[in-house]
Amino acid sequence: MNRLSAEAYHEAEKLPFVVVLDNIRSQHNVGAVFRTADAFRLEGIYLCGICCCPPNAEIHKTALGAEETVEWHYYSDTKDAVQALHEAGYTVYAVEQAHGSISIEEANKRISGKAQAKTAVVLGHEVFGVQQDVVDVCDGCIEIEQYGTKHSLNVSVTAGIVMYAISQQLRKA
User: Fold this and answer.
1) Among the residues of 13-131, which ranges form H helices?
2) Which entry of 32, 116, 122, 166 is 20 to 30 Å from 156 by CA?
3) What is the number of alpha carbons within 13 Å of residue 108 lying toward its C-beta?
4) What's the longest Cα–Cα distance across the chain?
5) Residue 128: partners with Cβ closer than 8 Å, 6 or more residues away
6) What is the pTM of this model?
7) CB 19 within 8 A of CB 164
8) 30: helix, coil or strand?
């Protein structure tokens, strides 16, 4: 099935793409993000604030071992994580419905043609979203267009959509 061993995964080239989790309270959501980040071979995950960290049995239930393959870092303050990413040359987008948000398609147009465009996305708390002071230090906001009566998605679903869309664009660059 063309699956990498854990050892081969650690040696494989990763996409220059980092997911930042801003105060995600559900350990299952954290685990799902690890599993999806592994699937798309992202560079890593930054866990911030109240996010739990591996090793953790509840994370493992949904990560299924991806918490052992995907590189991760912990920051008590999400703004420090964003600052570190900026210093490393990343463009950082909050995934949030806000005035001036752009679609994933527009974000991908901005990434398009930039070889190895270092990109990071910040996903926020299940109820409160990305903290406003974190949004303020990001380079912009990405929004997933929605057409039903609900105007929010589960954070792990949002993560999957965003990771897939941006990783596909980065693979083309």
Assistant:
1) 27-39, 57-63, 78-87, 104-111
2) 116
3) 17
4) 45
5) 23
6) 0.96
7) no
8) helix
